[in-house]
Amino acid sequence: MSAAPPGPIVTNPRPAATVVVLRDSSSGPEMFMVRRHEGTAFMGGAHVFPGGRVDAADHTADEEWCDGIAHATRQLAVLPPAEATAYHVAAARELFEEAGVLLARNARGELVSLAGAAGHARFNQDRKDVHGGRATLRAVIERERLRLALDALVLFAHWVTPPIDRRQFDTRFFMTRVPPDQMPAHDDTETTQSVWMTPPVAIARSQNREIVLPPPTWSTVRELEPFSSVDEALAWARRRRVVRREPTLIEQDGVRMLLVPGDPLHPDPAGDEPLAETRFVFVDGGWRAERSRA
């Protein structure tokens, strides 16, 4: 066994947030997924959940414009409160930028509707402005007299990409139900397509090489596979104990493998809920999930 090929090692991964948006269907819960632009340096061409880095502006959460500060700090009690809330704000902001979903409440405590033509056009421009750095999410929320709904985000996973290049991320995964009267859509900038899929369909399409699911995305989809409703998935997310998962990259007998905690060749334990597949083998330019052979 040998170590991964040498590269510029990162020792301080960038904080990031990802959001799995769900809706019920006759075939079970569907996930909203976006296809990253082919030219994107990180996961180009892959189908993923909306998400991205925690920015400096995400550290401004307070009771003046956010609901769920206590919820956010409780979910990420392992972090200082400002960092915990920043992860949640980043999740909501990235969801707005990449999917056009706004997790915010009006004065009546209802999740905001984007169904009206005028409101849809206004918020679509806001989405572009926030994405382009011409406005902050806080400015949009305060102008519209809304409150950001941090408590609509349920933390359920923690992934850290392997320290093998300059794009290492420390990512918290959140889950939410799509708000009524909101229709997610990709941004046509960082993402070029979007689709609703049930977990079994996503797995089948990946196995048929119709789409590419990066290892953390594949593992997340597999964890969502057993649920028959969004309520079931959210209940599971709320009660599970989140453990840190940092895959490790090795080469064995000329085969490049990405190992997840719980694999016999990975130093870390699986946690309370072992993954179905604990290793990904690099074959024909992509990662193929495999069950470990003890």
Description of the molecule:
There is one protein chain. The protein has 294 residues and is of the alpha+beta class. It folds into two domains: 15-243, Nucleoside Triphosphate Pyrophosphohydrolase (Alpha-Beta Complex); 247-294, no CATH class. It is built from seven helices and 16 strands. The chain has helices at 69-75, 81-99, 117-131, 137-143, 199-207, 215-224, 230-239, and strands at residues 2-3, 14-23, 30-36, 47-48, 51-53, 66-67, 104-105, 147-149, 154-160, 169-177, 191-197, 244-245, 248-252, 255-259, 279-283, 286-290. The strands form three sheets. Strands 2, 3, 4, 5, 9, 10, 11 and 12 form an eight-stranded mixed sheet that branches. Strands 1-13-14-15-16 form a five-stranded antiparallel sheet, with no helix packed on it. The protein has a three-stranded mixed sheet with strand order 6-8-7, with helices on one face. Helix 1 packs across helix 2, helix 2 crosses helix 3 and helix 5 crosses helix 6. The longest helix is centred in the first third of the chain and has 19 residues, at 81-99. It is globular. The two termini are 16 Å apart. The model is unreliable at 1-8 (pLDDT under 50).
